[in-house]
Specification:
The protein contains 2 helices and 18 strands. It is mainly beta and 206 residues long.
């Protein structure tokens, strides 16, 4: 086995989906050839010829933390979406970035409607994201600012018999995760987008 083949960085997940404004954690593990001593490790964005430490980039100022081999980014922005790699620096000018890395997609929430989408004429509202969130996320619906108790909810969808001039919003609750996200969950602060259904009501009930 060649020496270069002994360099290795492994990632538990190659794709990560996270909500805008939340905190995300990306993990890694690594190994290197014997005879080398690791002097520094950090994470960087995959950019041609650029291996800058995320903690040295202005756009991530105050938002990036390292915990051993784990990357934590707080207050996520849509512009944080990209490909991230863990980099190893050693005492013998050995440098290695774990390719291909982890693709992070930061998403917002969007409410969409599907009138008459079922055989019995029910209206379906969907709380959509640009990527697939992990199973630790649950979707919550609000009608005119109050949590929906009537109707039937399934996954990210809300089923309604009819709609009028009403305001609906969806939110996501994280059942486990970084401490910052737990605080959001306990204080009932959600990332949400509102859907004004007045126009739809006019179109379908005039």
């Amino acid at each position: 086995v060649s020496e270069s083949a002994c360099w290795n960085v492994a990632y538990p997940s190659r794709r990560v989906c996270a909500l805008e404004g939340s905190t995300v954690e990306i993990s890694s593990s690594y190994s290197h050839p014997s005879g080398f001593t690791v002097t520094k490790t950090f994470w960087h964005l995959v950019q041609p010829g650029d291996f800058r430490n995320l903690q040295e980039e202005d756009r991530f100022a105050g938002r990036v933390e390292y915990e051993e081999n784990k990357l934590r980014i707080k207050e996520l922005k849509r512009s944080d979406s990209g490909q991230y790699q863990f980099r190893i620096i050693t005492d013998k000018e050995g440098k290695f970035s774990g390719s291909p890395g982890v693709i992070l997609t930061v998403t917002d929430l969007q409410v969409t409607s599907h009138p008459d989408a079922t055989a019995d004429g029910k209206v379906i509202l969907s709380c959509a994201t640009r990527c697939t969130l992990s199973e630790k996320h649950t979707f919550i619906w609000y009608k005119n600012g109050r949590r929906v108790t009537e109707g039937f909810t399934k996954a990210n969808k809300l089923y309604l018999d009819s709609i009028g001039s009403e305001e609906f919003s969806c939110a996501v609750e994280e059942t486990e995760g970084p401490e910052e996200n737990d605080v959001l969950q306990k204080s009932m602060i959600f990332i949400s987008l509102l859907l004004i259904l007045a126009l739809i009501g006019v179109l379908f009930f005039r």
